[in-house]
Amino acid sequence: MGAADGAPDDGASFSVAEHAGWTVVTVSGELDIATAGTLDEHLSAAIGADGPPRVVVDVTRMTFCDSSGLNVLIRASKRIAAMRGRFVLVRPTDRVRNVLRVTGLERVFDIRDELPEPG
C-alpha cells in the first residue's frame, strides 16, 4: 500500500465509516509528522458534515503518536467543541494511553474502551 491508494508509504492507514450516528475515523500504524496531515484531512471532512459533528477516532491499531499527531487531535477536538459536537478517542493501546497520560491529554479527551452508543 502506498500514497497512490490513500495510505502513506510508511504503512500508516486511515479509514472512515459511519456507526450509530457517529463518524468513525480509524488510525492504524504510526501517527507522526509524515501521516498527521492525512488524518487532519479526514477529520476536517468529518467536522464539515451537517449539524454538530460527532467524531470517534479509533486508535486500537495506532502504534505510535508524536507531537504532530497529538496536535491534529487537539485541534480537531477544539473545533468540534466549538461547534457543540462530540469528540471521542476509543481503545488506546497502553503505549498510546501512556503518551496521553504524560502529556495531560488523558484529562482533556473523552477516552472510551468501546464505541459510543447512539444518541
Please summarize what this structure is.
By secondary structure, the protein is an alpha/beta fold. The protein has helices at residues 36-47, 67-82, 94-103; strands spanning 13-19, 22-31, 54-65, 86-90, 110-112. Helix content is 32%, strand content 31%.
Topology:
Blueprint (H helix, E strand, L loop, with lengths): L12 E7 L2 E10 L4 H12 L6 E12 L1 H16 L3 E5 L3 H10 L6 E3 L7
Parallel strand pairs: 2-3, 3-4, 4-5
Antiparallel strand pairs: 1-2
Folded structure, characterized:
It is built from three helices and five strands. By secondary structure, the chain is an alpha/beta fold. It has a single domain (14-112), classed as Transcription Regulator spoIIAA (2-Layer Sandwich). Strand 1 and strand 2 (22-31) form a beta hairpin. The longest helix has 16 residues, at 67-82. Mean pLDDT is 89; it is low at 1-9.
What keywords describe this structure?
Transcription Regulator spoIIAA, 5-stranded mixed sheet, globular
Determine the strand fraction and express it as a percent band. Answer: 25-35%
What number is the mean pLDDT? 89
Number of strands: 5
Reading side by side through the largest sheet, how are the strands ordered?
1-2-3-4-5
Helix content: 25-40%
| Structural shape | globular
Low-confidence stretches: 1-9
CATH superfamily: STAS domain
The helix/strand series, from N terminus to C terminus, equals EEHEHEHE
> What class, by secondary structure content?
alpha/beta
- The rounded distance between the terminal residues' Cα atoms is 36 Å
- The fold-level CATH name is Transcription Regulator spoIIAA
Question: Which CATH architecture would you pick?
Answer: 2-Layer Sandwich
Cα Rg: 13 Å
Largest sheet: 5 strands, mixed
- The tally of helices reads 3
Write down the CATH class.
Alpha Beta
Q: What is the total domain count?
A: 1
Protein name: Anti-sigma factor antagonist
Organism: Actinomadura physcomitrii
Pfam families: STAS
GO molecular function, one term: anti-sigma factor antagonist activity
